[in-house]
Predict the structure.
Amino acid sequence: MSAMRLAFQAAGVSGGITCPYCLQKARLVDGAVIYPHRQDLRQHRFWQCAPCNAYVGCHKPNRRLGLDGTEPLGRLANVELRQAKSAAHGCFDWIWQDRHKTRSEAYAWLASKLDIPVERCHIGEFDVPTCRRVVEVCEGFRKSMLVTFQK
Ligand SMILES: [Zn+2]
């Protein structure tokens, strides 16, 4: 992640985070609020908009990078977006986890399919239509692999 982008995100936090759904201020909460049963996430912080059931995790604190643990990992996601992102990850991660491509090749390939720069190719930051497009192009790839195997 570039220093400029981190600076941009940090600048956003000083004024608080706005929920993209209702445009109200999100609340900074700890992991116990979002995942009451996950002891391991207790120390993590999240931005939450309870009325929208939307949240996003924060970067781990890193003094060297100027991160105080309140910088969001991306935009707040509601149920629909969280499901769309996990579907996108499910279809995409298989491509590099099964070694059809290396991880970086897979991201470069996905970026070209989506016609976006590879440095902006983060499923965590995609919106619902882009997540659906990820599923489509990865399904297309999977089918092309099946055809190859059948030859
Ligand atoms: Zn909201």
